[in-house]
Amino acid sequence: MTMHEFFMGMTQLELINRAPGFFKYQPHNVAAHSWKVAQVAQFLADVEEQNGATINWQLVYEKALNHDYTERFIGDIKTPVKYATSTLRSMLADVEDSMTENFIKTEIPRQFQSAYMRRLGEGKDDSIEGRILSISDKVDLMYEAYGELEKFNPEPVFVNIFQSSLEALAEFQDMASVKYIATDILPDIFEENFISKNQLYDLAKSLLPDFAASQK
């Protein structure tokens, strides 16, 4: 076995479009998303470290760069479908885990298998690095939606995506990185003009106290 199939998979990720089935002015693929998430995670880990957290930088990069690699097996399933029921979500996760494990055992050289079991496993855990990944993933999702709203894309799904991203960030509002997003990034976003701006602005204020305080 060699790493040939793994490297080929990176090209496949370039061909998997995110948010399939919706009109987009600027399509995004899974490979580009992973790179952007890594960039966001790198910065947010800086923020956490400057606020006293101990960061395992290897895990930050491994989690961010590999968090969607397994979508080469099942594609990017629409979020409303993926989360329709907890049972369906669990079934999809089981399929993904099984296919990933089989891929590692059959395509990754034995001496590297333990490393790739770690890298291709579920990265969004309760560790500081896992939480940074969860936040970074939602930040990029929010920016993908924002890019469409700014172009006045009439598809309502992008308002929903922006909204769900804010709701997800609110779950981590005790973290320094989310406080930074709330006080230093969201104000810049809401300086611009885009679809449903007032609705999303009010939602951000209700969900993120640090953002609300920055607007006084």
Characterize the structure shown.
By secondary structure, the protein is mostly helical. It has a single domain, classed as Orthogonal Bundle (Hypothetical protein af1432), CATH 1.10.3210. Helix 2 packs across helix 10 and helix 9 (157-170) runs parallel beside helix 11. It is built from 12 helices and no strands. The radius of gyration is 18 Å and the shape is globular.
How is the biggest beta sheet arranged?
Answer: none
Class based on secondary structure composition and strand pairing: mainly alpha
CATH architecture annotation name: Orthogonal Bundle
Q: What is the CATH homology-level superfamily?
A: Hypothetical protein af1432
Share in β-strands? under 5%
Low-pLDDT segments:
none
Q: Approximately how much helix is present in the residues?
A: 55-70%
Mean pLDDT: 91
CATH topology: Hypothetical protein af1432
The ordered string of helix (H) and strand (E) elements is HHHHHHHHHHHH
Radius of gyration: 18 Å
CATH class: Mainly Alpha
Number of domains: 1
N- to C-terminal separation?
60 Å
Count of β-strands: 0
Shape: globular
Structure annotation, total helices: 12
